[in-house]
What does this fold into?
Amino acid sequence: MSNFMNTSSSSSSNYGTNGGVLELTLKETLAVIKPSEEDVTARTRVIDELKAIVNQSALQYSSLRGAAVNPFGSYICNLYTRWGDLDISIQIQDPLRRSTALKHLREAVTRRNTFRITKFIPNARILLLVVESNNHNNITCDISIDNYAGVFKSIFLGWEWAKSEGINNSRNGTFTSYALSLLVIFHFQTCEPPVLPPLKELHTGEIVAEGRFHSCDLQDLRNQMTANVEKFKRERLTNTSSLSELFVSFFQKFSAIEMAKDNYFCTYTWKWEQSRGGFLSLLERSKLHIEDPFARLQNAARGVYDTRKISEAFQKTYSMLISASGRDRFSLITNLVRPEIRSQIITRG
It folds into this structure.
């Protein structure tokens, strides 16, 4: 169990002089994937156009009266990449009419020339309408109805590295971006000293009860969570690790992730715990267990079955980072990012 707990990120600086090159390369990568002003403006306009469609449609469809358009996910906290989708939740007045509201929204979008519909899923746990903008960089929007789960998961970020390694794809038995992001949060929580608090300290009220998300004032929730983060920062020692030290210690910590099948990672309590009977009995086919902090009996990694591939990716990357290759900018770029982004980073040098 100790392999996954209280890793000192600064202790990972034993990769010698690699730190300076890695630090620079990571910052170059972030500069390339960070949205430009044009990207930011395009997303703002797409959201405004969706709001206009919903507001105008409310005159015709009672299911959309009083509906609110809430962006969530990486966009809301400025953690999205230039190529990221927009996640939108339409919060409606009557939760019993979610499917009807989505169908009415599809009809309204069809009558406009601003979007084209690429997917429509009206009968699922998360109702989904996927549209693509015709006017603003072909931005894709995943539109759901009353997706409080998505709204509350807004702080999480998928990793460019995972995409480059082919382990950020639930279809091939590896991570969803959400599961991977929970693992990143767990890493920050278990550094020494911790970078993030247990998620239970960010919100003192109850978000989920009996498997359902409570409707609440999202701005009040954000204010409360922000205040609790500031309290955590005041009351605990500051982690002074560099970006590269945190990065290397992440791979060091999870290189043995394949051995974690009988335990689960819990960001709610920031512990790596023995699997509970009820928790595992529902998830016995899963090979990796990452507790969903917003629905604690659910496994956010329930679709993961290729833990060997994941573990090998962590081990390979960690070995590269602490080897001579970790001192070479070109080698770092080649190993850490996807081919379509590599050339943009290399030319910056």
About this structure: Residues 37-80+93-145 form a domain with the Beta Polymerase; domain 2 fold (CATH 3.30.460). Residues 13-17, 150-159, 209-213, 279-283 have pLDDT under 50 and may be disordered.
